[in-house]
Write a structure and sequence with these properties.
- This protein has 175 residues and is α+β, with helices and mostly antiparallel strands.
- It has 8 helices and 4 strands.
- It has helices at residues 3-20, 23-39, 41-47, 54-65, 71-82, 89-103, 119-133, 164-174, and strands at residues 107-113, 137-143, 150-155, 158-163.
Length: 175
């Protein structure tokens, strides 16, 4: 799909969620779903397989998200998958997150950790990143076991890598 089409989908999803009054929640749910989608080859293959009827792919979305996400999120993902654009879902969602952050006059910080953070840990991390970057941030966390420990934060083009994996790699390089 072209960049213009991806932007069009992102704009449409943003406007629907904003009109529904659930933008913050939908944005977060879509972000988490997009990261899960990227991390599961089986899910990617199933949802983007044109040989599987659209209704069946949409039923899979209902099974995955029904009761766990807002109806708006479920409907939006189902719409994208049903229209055959599942391959572009992460790009669409990333643009939606950027649009939502811009609407709140925030920059997006994508943070990868080995384990889920508590609300207090997220608040402290957000404050530390805002202090380090001088920007107001919309924090998006991703649990990524490959980080091993610590944090990898991306704010725009800046990457702050304080992960155990990077420290080990640095020690190996020194030895």
């Amino acid at each position: 799909m072209s960049d213009a089409q991806i932007q069009g989908y992102a704009r449409a999803l943003f406007e629907i969620a904003r009109a529904d009054g659930t933008l913050d929640e939908v944005e977060d749910e879509l972000f988490r779903f997009a990261r899960s989608y990227e991390g599961s080859e089986e899910l990617r293959n199933t949802l983007s397989d044109d040989q599987i009827p659209a209704e069946k792919r949409q039923a899979i979305i209902e099974d995955l998200l029904g009761g766990k996400a807002t109806p708006t999120t479920t409907q939006l993902v189902s719409m994208v998958v049903g229209s055959g654009k599942a391959r572009d879902l992460p790009a669409i969602v990333d643009l939606l997150v950027q649009r939502a952050s811009s609407a709140k006059q925030l920059d997006t910080a994508e943070v990868r950790t080995a384990v889920a953070l508590t609300g207090d840990q997220e608040d402290r991390l957000k404050a530390a990143l805002e202090n380090a970057t001088g920007k107001r941030l919309n924090l998006k966390t991703i649990v990524d076991p490959s980080v091993v420990g610590g944090v990898v934060a991306t704010v725009g083009d800046d990457v702050i890598d304080d992960s155990v994996r990077t420290r080990i790699d640095q020690l190996k390089a020194r030895l």
